[in-house]
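no rush on this but wanted to send it before i forget. what follows is a protein written twice so to speak, once as letters and once as C-alpha cells for the fold. mainly i need to know what kind of three dimensional shape the backbone takes. thanks a lot i owe you, the record is right below.
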Amino acid sequence: MQLSLHNIKHQVGAQPYLYDMNLALQPGALTVLLGTTLSGKTTLMRIMAGLDKPTQGQVTVDGKDVTGMPVRERNVAMVYQQFINYPSMKVYDNIASPLKLRKQADIKAQVTAMAQKLHIDHLLDRLPAELSGGQQQRVALARALIKGAPLILLDEPLVNLDYKLREELREELSGLFALGNSAVVYATTEPAEALLLGGYTAVLDAGKLLQYGPTAEVFHQPASLRVAKAFSDPPINLIAGEYNGAAIDLAGALELPIACPNLVNKHVTVGIRASALRMQNNAGDFAIAGKVILAEISGSDTFVHMETKLGDLVAQFTGVHFFELDAPLTVYVNPQQCYVFGHDEKLLVAAQRRGAN
C-alpha cells in the first residue's frame, strides 16, 4: 500500500493544526511520527485514517484519491493512547471481532496465534475489566494487528503504561511489525522509542513536517536545529561559536577543529548530545572542564548537569554513578560527534560521522 499526502493543510477556524506538507509513506514499512505534544501527530493520523478531511490537499492510496472518504470505507486499523476494548466481550471475542465481521475461516487458530505473540493467550476467557492496563492495551493491539489492514495507525499506544511494560512491548512490537505486510504509522514523543523501533521517521514540530527519512539517517543527520532538538532526550547541549575559516571558537575557551567550507555567516551554534559526553579520554577527544551542579539517576543511566566555561551542559553516562555537588568533573567529546548549525536558518552545516555517537 502506498499512502501519500499532497500539499496537506488543516485548520479549525483560524487555528492552523497542519501547515502545507507532502509525505509519501514507504510501502510495507514502519513510519514513526516524532514530535512533542501539539506538534500535529494526532491530526495527521486522523487525516490518514479518514476521520478528518484536510482543509487543503489530497490523500491518495495507490494513486487513488481518497480525500474525504470516511473511515468505514477504508481498510484501516487504529490504536489510541487509551485502552479501547468492548467491555462486555471476553478477550477472545475482542480480538476475533474484525475476523467475524469478515466471516473469515480459522478464526480460533488466528486469535490463538496472535494472543500467543502478545503473551495474552492465558487471558482469552477474561473480560477487559479483569485485566491490568498493560494487558488491556495488548488486547487492543492484538485486535488491530489481526485485522491485517494495509494501514495500521498507533497513536502513542504505550504512553499510559509504566516504564517496564513500555520497554517490554516496544521490543515485541518491533518484531511484530517486521513480520507483517502492513504500513504502520506509530506516533511518539520519545526519541528513544523512535530509535528502538527503527524504520522511517517523520519529525513534526508545531504542525510542520521538518524531515522524513530512515530513522538512523534522521538521527545522525538532522537537517536543522529544530530536528536535532526534537530528536534529542535529554535536550541537546547548544553552544554559540564563531568559525574562523579553520576551526570553531567556543566562547574563547576552546577551538573545535571542524571544517565548514560552505558556511556563509561565521556565527554558528554547536550541538552536542548528552550521550556524546564521556568520562574517558579517547584519541582525538577534546576536554571540557567544569563542576557538578546536579546528578540524577534515571533507570540505568546517570544524568549530570555541569557548569562550564561553555555554559551549562548535561552529560548522560551509562550505569549508576554518584557525584558530589560542586565536585570538579572533566568530560570528553570527539569533534566528529558535534553538530554545527548555521546562524540564520539554523540549518545543518556539519555533522558527526555515521555511528560515532
